[in-house]
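Why predict the complex rather than its parts? Because the way molecules touch one another can change local conformation, and only a joint prediction can capture that. The input here totals 635 residues.
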Amino acid sequence: MTARGLTREGLAGLAAELIGAGIRVVAPARAADGGVDYLEVTRFEECALGAEMPRRSLRSAFQPATEPLFAWNRTGGRLFLTPAEANGPQVVLGARPCDAAGAAILDKVMGWDYRDEFWFARREATTVLTVECAEPGPTCFCEAVGLAPDSDAGSDVLLRDAPGGYRAEAITPKGEAFMEAHARWFGEAPSAASEPARTRQAPLPLDAMRGWLAEHFEDDLWRDVALRCLGCGACTSICPTCHCFDIVDEPEGASAGTRRRNWDTCQAGIFTAHTSGHNPRADQTARCRQRVMHKFLVYPQRFGAVLCTGCGRCARACPAGVLLPEILETIAGRCRQAAPSGDLA
Amino acid sequence: MKELRDLARTLLTDGSVQVVIGWEDGPAGARPAFVTKAEDADRLIFDPRCVHNLAAYLSPRRPHVGRLGKAAVVVKGCDARAVAALLRESQIQREDVVIIGVRCGGVLADPSRRVDLTAENVSERCSGCEAREPGLADHLVGEMPPPPPGERSRETRIEELEAMSAAERSAFWQAEFSRCVRCNACRQVCPLCTCDRCVADKTQPQWIEQSAHERGIFAWQLTRALHHAGRCADCGECARVCPAGIPLGLLNRQAARIVERRFGYRATDDPSIPAPIGAFRSDDGQEFIR
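Output of the joint prediction:
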């Protein structure tokens, strides 16, 4: 693994070089209303590195809220299909470790029963430069789900805090190549990065919790959790690991149109509504349970990783105080009660 | 607080209701609470962190709450307007709910922090509030606190918007709406979005494109604003929930001002006064409808 030094001035120069070369640079930046989002920046000065956590995750860099799949046009009795434009190169400057990790977790499902060409086209065209998290927020719980403020999962280059700038560590061959290609901005590696931040949560007994969930599809917990849930789905639209989508055809006139893929949410009734009128997830109790089951039972069973990076955004975004960390802690508590002490990881 | 808790305890003990929907102190601030046992009545709180409009839980769209039985709901003055709208539109019946009104001195925009109310942290709709004591209530509790701090800054912002040219105003909303991801959270939390099937979810025919591109966003946001013009209780929940920080309250409020100018109607907690969108008047100002 290559480690180099990158001063703040060097980072500014690197960003300017990338933007100048026509590469799409996405970074935490202030939106018009003052909130921080991951946005495409046109000047390094727009980057808000070290500001509060972006409101929404990095998901949109790999799966935008809406994306065209293809366009159709019927002319003279013939149907013409035009594929969506290919994605150019993209660099994420200043991803949060929890957001970078989210993309890596999603690679598993996106490459599972078929290879999602749109997802992987963006993943492959993107180099992720992650900045170690200096100050975890009040609802952060990454360490409870096995990550940390300095996790390198999903990152190509990890920038660790160092005097005057960063210690840049190449995590993947892509990151290695990136640092090589832009070598003039990188200097001697600082000898030691400062002590990484910690959130100080005990790891959750995720294996035992999976067992509990498998046996408690019916449980009063779901009713109690769901009572206050308004079904707004805000938790799913800011999540780094939620990835469900809907596909719609949008006509433009009588003979042309575009097929698009849009974010969807399991918290909406229509998500599972059948054309017959039947809905297997008839109310919010079923939908809240689904969110926890998918993230902490189904996904780990199939892919060996929980579908959560502990970014804590859902707890902040919920208008009704439904707190995933609290739900997880409740389930963990029941597991601890059920198991002899010391048996839980 | 004692008055509120005592009342809740009595209502649950004598069987008047099976659940009291109020607020509690959660791990990350105040949040909605559903008290079903008299011995849990002491969980209930009311303080400036209680920003949530609990009328949303009365909606027939939430059968998981309805299954608890007859409810008493704690409302601030603004929330009472939403209960009145549900009654006015026959979404709930008056005898099906016990309304506990609390006198309010304004609420915080962010319910997670226990701090004194200031002009900076007060919810933007509170400044200049004229409904600090709910008129629609079976029980009224609490002393009247001092009025909320701050200027009517939102009204000033709306006046600025109204003074803009149509093109400038369009550009303003275009910039704000550009962050919309069409998550529909604004609709879901709205106590007055009670449709079984929202026009935005229909695909055959597709009245509103579902994609988060400019056409789809404008079609949705303008439809939402128009469907709420003169109905909106101005509880601010849509703006509070928006994960993109779009100031939907401004849009709602501007529509309400237009309705007031054109129809002489202001959202009220008196359910017997019909709202223009659901009323027919032979002296209507619009010729096409007479």
